[in-house]
Amino acid sequence: MEAETVKKKRIFSGIQPTGTLTLGNYIGALRNFKLLEDEYDCVYSIVDLHAITVRQNPTELRKACLRVMSLYLAVGLSPEKSLLYFQSHVPQHAELNWVLGCFTYMGELNRMTQFKDKSQKHADNINAGLYTYPVLMAADILLYMSDLVPVGADQKQHLEISRDIAERFNKIYGDTFVVPEPYIGKVGGRVMSLQDPTRKMSKSDPEDTYVAMLDSADVIRKKIRRAITDSDSEVRYDPENKPGVSNLMSIMATITGKTMDEIALEYGSKGYGVFKDAVADCIIAELEPIQKRFNEIITDKAYLQQVMTVSAERASNIAYRTMLKVRRKIGLAALKL
Ligand code: TYM
Q1: Quick one: CA torsion of 15, 20, 23, 28, rounded to 10 degrees?
Q2: Residues facing residue 147 across a β-bridge
Q3: Is 13 in the pocket of ligand 1 (CB under 6 A)?
Q4: Residue 134: CB within 6 Å of ligand 1?
């Protein structure tokens, strides 16, 4: 009985509803969301406010929002156990973003590598939102007093700045926020591009560089067959000298649970053709049931509506309490004297 009353630790994470989700998003984040769901009290957001830091077509963005919500449900996340909601439905994210912006130094934001990358990609739209993106991310996490944040390795720097902001605030005003820890998978924290395995797989790159979670079996097989490897033919884990093969091995290892040694033993000398087909097979076997559920859920508007409304309301209750505390600590005018 006693064990049941112990409060579970809290998880927060989010995914941007831009374009389509990739195998990188799945292996680096979404898959872990599901694996951690029973052990933690989970808050999973669809971070639509982050998405508008680059120009979006409104109709496409609206559709992408529902697609990501349907994917959350299709991978098996349970709206009874976890909160599954849109960031913009809980206005305290934006409110805390402002407050935390006043506790973040420009010097810190200047060091963010994602800002530098995205500024290069969107040189015609280097806006203030793109610059302060990590502050909104810190607000997301701190709003829910989150202990753990499952993300891919590319988000490590953003997690570090979230921790720094929380610690700074706590030092000035006394214990207010929980200082969050990142959760990054040892294998699969960084799924690489199929065409340039020294870069991370990204949905903003050309289509042949990534597997989308909703790609058909044929497309997946073609993309994996065309993945860049090397002129040698040995399946061996060596990220430095064999980044392409090592990336495919990591994908297989996370999906099947096999170790690198087991994979090397099984496919080592069979050649890349056989190995690539086996990699494609395991991706397809993993994604097909998700795609089947996705196709049912995306058309069930009533269900989607119910999940997002109930979750947003519960998330708002937590967020409201945090903001009361923050307002009091920093001395904002009280609504009731
Ligand atoms: P986004 O939408 O760019 O990515 C969502 C998640 O997918 C992970 N990811 C990858 N993991 C491994 N290999 C890859 N190639 C790969 N590509 C993407 C990302 O690391 C991320 O975990 N800024 C966040 C969204 C966010 C957030 C938050 C996350 C906003 N607020 C608060 C956690 C907590 C992002 O990168 O989204």
Answers
A1: -10
A2: none
A3: yes
A4: no
